[in-house]
Please model this.
Amino acid sequence: MTDYSYTLLIPFIPFVVFLITGLFGNRWKPIVSGLMGTVGLAISFLLSLIVAYQYFFASAVDSYQALIPFNWLWLSLTDTLQMQMGVLLDPISVMMLVVVTTISFMVHIYSLGYMKGERGFERFYAFLSLFTFSMLGLVMSTNIFEMFVFYELVGACSYLLIGFYYEKPSAIAAMKKAFIVTRFADLGFLIGILILSFYTNTFDFEKLTQPGSDIYRNLAGLSFMGISALSWAMGLVFMGAAGKSAMFPFHIWLPDAMEGPTPVSALIHAATMVVAGVFTVARMFPVYYFHTPDVLIFIGYVGGFTSLFAAIIAITQNDIKRILAYSTLSQIGYMMVGLGISGYGGEAGLGYMAAMFHLFTHAMFKALLFLTAGAIIHAVHSNFMQDMGGLRKYLPVTHLTYLAAALAISGIPPFAGFFSKDEILAAAYHSNKLLFYTEYITAGITSFYIFRLYFGVFWGKNTQYKHKPHEAPLSMTIPLIFLALASTFVGFIPFHNLISPDMKPFTTEPEPMLITASVLIGLLGIAGAWVLYKKENDIPDRLSRWFGGLYTITYHKFYIDEIYLFITKNILFNMVARPVAWFDRHIVDGTMMGIGSVTVAISKKIKRFQSGELQQYAFVYVAGVILFVLTFLYYLG
Amino acid sequence: MTLPVFMFYLISATILLFSVMTIASRKMLRSAIYLLFVLIATSGFYFLLNYQFLAGVQLTLYAGGIVVLIIFSILLTSHISHKFKRPSTWKLWMGLTVLVIGSATALWVILLQPFSKDPALKTVPVTMHLIGNQLLGLGKNGYVLPFELISILLIAAMIAAIVVAKKESN
Amino acid sequence: MIQGLSIYHFLVVSTLMFFIGITGFIIRQNLITILLSVELILNSVVINFLVFNRFLYPDQLQGHFFSLFIIGIAAAEASVAVALIINIYRRIRNINADNVNEMKF
Model:
């Protein structure tokens, strides 16, 4: 047995960096905090690569074991129901370790250049380290309650980082929205955890996900409103996952979260936190598959709908970060679809593997897309596509790395996205034709909008810039190059040997028909964008006028935000909050004030005894004496 | 009916009548004069009980000293012809309640109590010689200590009266 | 001893005078008239002591001397009371019992 106890360092180094930079960051020059964070992350990155090597490649076993190097008892609710804090190593958690530390490391290096000179530089690095710690803790959780604790932690870090520019009112609104929506979804998560743990009497993942275990016997007959209790529990757990991963209808916070600095968008809202929901579903996959397959297919449909919905909106947006945000929503939808249609054991587990593979590749190219967007914004000082054009002459490195990421997301071989996306499509084709066609069309739309962005920014019209845009400094271009290489080559990692639902490797046969079909739709999207956007022309304007109302609705993101605002203002505030406030002010407060005023009234009556009136005193005195005498006589006589 | 009994009834009627009029009169000087009559009648009681010395003291101190003092204060502080209002109703009720219930209780207790005198005790004639000896006597029945104490009290009362009543020097 | 008169006769008179004095204390409005009622009370107490001395303990003079002292004390108290009344009159120009109620809540 190899000793995995060093894995505890992986999350703790960023935590210690957070404490130091958080408490003492303002005592030294900002660059010191930046370097501390980067070096800490570099160590975690190397350690996670070592763990991955040791776990996957160095131990010669035919199936991977779930290892638990640490597990401390934190809180014991009953003899059997206990909350622990521990470290779990199994294929998906090791993979996530690599993902999180890689992207975080790249973002740390990138921020040395991007955030240079910003007020609050050391605060930024402190929060980044805290976030990395929380995310690493989340993926290494041994039990569902520990995962919930880290869910809240990443939510809090996301809140702090979105509102990093806290003097902008739009940033404040966005940070509140993100936190409230995810917190509301986490309420569902908590209720699901409580139902699940109450009946199964355990929080541990190992016990919950063991196929064939009998801990679900208590839930066998229970149902509520026609749906079994276990489906409710797992559905509520998915509600938490949907909130974190911004699935419809909890997607509203992710586009607004672009108010935060671009490195934050790259780290949190592209590569790591938003995949926490996918990770949760993958973690609980045996439960979903064996006990609640109806919830599993529901997850698939939610993912499919979100990916198509977000892709359509992305076609019409003008803010480049918003386009990428909707693209993230769409790609996470892909992952949910992959999980939703997956089977268990052998080749049937293709969907699960493909979803995890897509998570890995998506992290690389989406982070790259965001970081290049950051470089563009840094050069042009604007977020909007109208202010850009012809930038390929000024930003060569950014141009090429963006192209690599765009080809990856469009699914063009040999880039990484091709391998993962194609496998999801293959798995969908064999399980659920509706979802297959949805995802197929979405693939086309995806390549269309990504290349709309590409052509619009780097080709398109020849904008005259007031200041000549300069290429990003080295600290920003090195991560771009690294991630571009990753986006190109990670597709060749044989994931089916590493990740599967039952932790045994399997093999699949590639299908040439499907491969050509998916590449074809990708190329179609690129062609469409080439025609519309490579050279400046008026075809897009004519098309948007031709679509008319449909275009307007899509541009306004299907008015979902307005609907939410209406519901909260008119229904929640007026019908729920107002009566509750009235009750609190008049009845609860009124009771307390009433008690007080009754006391005061009684005391006013009593204090008349001490009136200062001489004769009243005399009367009371004599009357008392007479009463005494009468009492004596009564009792003695 | 012998003379003492007749005198007793006369004097007690006087006392009770005039004390009621003291408290019920609406002119202040008249109240003081009715009190004077009560005190004189009380000294009649003392004569009846064969305490001549005390009757004299009563007439001198009480009737002659205290009532004169009170009349002085009346003259100093108010209009002599000032007519009082009737007392307020609730005060009247308070007072009358106390009067009726209190006197009923006390009389009931007293009249049911069997006061018995030890027949072996012989009456001592109260002469000035006896009073003087006992007042300043040191023996078993001597009252020299209370005598001295009351003289201190009288000095204290004198000083208090002077201090309290003197004009503030501005 | 007096023929035909028992202790009860005298005690009834003194009791009634006592309670009349208390009633006067409660009813009257003017401080001086309250003082008069107090003198009535003290007077009744003096009668009580003497009556007990004469009828129950005729061989001693304790009640007699006690009455003497009570009369002396009554005189002292009346003089102090009058001094107080004069002081109050100087402050508030009238001597109603209702106007001297400052030691209250």
User: Anything to note?
Assistant: Chain C touches chain B through 73 residues (CB under 8 Å). Chain C is about 75% helix and 0% strand. The mean pLDDT of chain C is 90.
